[in-house]
Amino acid sequence: MTAPIAPRILEQAATWLAQLHSGDASDADRAACARWREQDPDHARAWARAEALMNQLGGLPPALALPLLDRPASRPRRQALAGAALLVLPPAGWLGWRMSVPAHRTGSGERRELLLADGSRVTLGSASAIDVRFDPAQRLVLLREGEILVHTALDNGAVQRPFRVASAHGRMQALGTRFSVRAHQGRTSVAVLDGAVRIEPAHGAALTLRAGQQTAFSASAAAAPADTVDAAAWTRGMLLADKMALAELLAELARYRGGVLRCDPQLAALPVSGAFPVGGPAEVERALAMLAATYPLQVQSRLGGWWTTLVPAKK
Q1: CA distances in angstroms from 125 to 194, 235, 239, listed in the order given
Q2: What is the rounded distance in angstroms from the CA atom of residue 304 to the CA atom of residue 275?
Q3: How much is the pLDDT for 192?
Q4: d(CA 254, CA 229)
Q5: Would residue 56 be called left, alpha or beta, if left means φ above 0 and alpha means ψ between -120 and 50 degrees?
Q6: Which of the following CATH numbers is that of domain 237-312: 3.40.640.10, 3.40.50.300, 3.55.50.30, 3.40.1280.10?
Q7: pLDDT band, residue 223 (cuts 50/70/90)
Q8: What single DSSP character describes residue 287?
Q9: Which CATH architecture is the domain 104-227 placed in?
């Protein structure tokens, strides 16, 4: 069994994390925190626990999140920490909470930004879900579904842990960068905005992408890099298509609304280009109207718009 961490050390870790996330932390503060963590193995353990809790809560302010650090069961109480009144839970409450918390998730048409414990930022797109797992060896984001934009920060520890994103098809290691990742049914797509990303398919050769490049990879191989065009447009409510098959475009639009959105098989391979609004059902309706005005197709809606099909336009 791992020895318990003294409450005073947990409180010190909480205070350090609150200070570093206050918005006023200096380089001297970060260096002092690093020295504190190196002074004692229990300091490092307490810091790792505080980081893990912050990441599970998706950037909840430290003054509210850190009281969930486990304390002796005989001492549940409210106490001041870093100037805030905090609820203190016993170990059983902490373990039960960890078991019940789901992945960070967004609904249809929703976007959400998370501030991670190391200062990195992750923006979740529509209908997306991630887990965050920081440990002494790495900083890991598990992409369960959907799309994310990652802006990494330098690790605030003495040892620079690698920042990785894992999907069903492999993993990606950030090399000081900003990049987007999208999980598809049979592949993962990656686009690099700044820096570089090393892609490691689960059973294939590794590949490094530079800024301005994108690719898609399966578990066995990655496609050759190609130029990317504004890979973060979805964070501003736009979906860019460059000769994208209509069926694929509709699959993307469907993530921003409920119901069924499909096309006649005759139109599935129709190449479509343009900038289409996304963000919710109303924007998707506008995008469909743009398609109908530009291409030889029409929109058929049934069941109050719940079932929508794009069919060839009548001649």
Answers
A1: 19, 7, 12
A2: 26
A3: 94
A4: 22
A5: alpha
A6: 3.55.50.30
A7: very high
A8: H
A9: Sandwich (2.60)
